Automatic annotation (TrEMBL):
Belongs to the RRF family. It holds the Pfam family RRF. The gene is frr. The keyword Protein biosynthesis applies. Responsible for the release of ribosomes from messenger RNA at the termination of protein biosynthesis. May increase the efficiency of translation by recycling ribosomes from one round of translation to another. Residues 24-186 form the Ribosome recycling factor domain. The keyword tRNA-binding does not apply. This is Ribosome-recycling factor. InterPro entries: Ribosome_recyc_fac, Ribosome_recyc_fac_dom, RRF_sf. One of its GO terms (biological process) is cytoplasmic translational termination. It comes from Tropicimonas isoalkanivorans. Keywords: Cytoplasm, Protein biosynthesis. One of its GO terms (molecular function) is ribosomal large subunit binding. HAMAP family: RRF. It is found in: Cytoplasm.
Length: 188
């Protein structure tokens, strides 16, 4: 009897779970911890020339001092759009416009804002867990199809265990990253 089934693509599942971790890392970088960081602006999009564009693609981002970010906008007509995007970003930063330069003073975080940010971090982590579980579910669907195509039950059990182990490993990484980020946010 020839095997007409395909083993699940574990490398693809690993790659997709790693993608969820990478997305989480980028989201965590956008959370400010009281220090200026150019990556805080990464998720901010500006309506530039009819298309949503990352803010760092319409100007130069600098961090001249620990509590200040500057954004030097290349096209003068984009300054007001960039300022609007920054105000609406939810970062809690009040932009100061000086010609084509937008200054972003990073205020000290108060206790309440730190708690809010830990909740945002927890939300980002939960989204990453959901993404990882969705990848797991795809892997289980691949197994179900392989079973229908003639995969022996023993093989199916081995693959199920491997997919679950992969999922658990990635969920642990998310949990550790969240714990670290929350400690960083709460640090005064």
């Amino acid at each position: 009897m020839s095997a007409d089934y395909e083993d699940p693509d574990i490398d693809d599942l690993k790659h997709r779970m790693a993608g969820a971790l990478k997305a989480l890392k980028n989201e965590f970088l956008s959370l400010r911890t009281g220090r200026a960081s150019a990556s805080m602006l990464d998720p901010i999009q500006v309506d530039a020339y009819g298309a949503m564009t990352p803010i760092n693609q319409i100007g130069t981002v600098n961090v001249p001092e620990p509590r200040m970010i500057t954004l030097n906008i290349w096209d003068k007509s984009m300054v007001s759009k960039a300022e609007k995007a920054l105000r609406e970003s939810g970062l809690g930063i009040n932009p100061v416009v000086d010609g084509t330069i937008i200054r972003l003073p990073i205020p000290e975080l108060n206790e309440e804002r730190r708690r809010e940010l830990t909740k945002v971090a927890a939300h980002y982590a939960e989204n990453a867990r959901v993404a990882i579980r969705n990848v797991r579910q795809d892997g289980m669907h691949q197994l179900k199809k392989a079973k229908g195509d003639g995969m022996p039950e023993d093989d199916q059990k081995i693959w199920q265990d491997e997919i679950q182990e992969l999922t658990d490993k990635h969920i642990k990484i998310v949990d550790a990253a969240l714990e670290h980020k929350q400690e960083e946010i709460m640090q005064v």
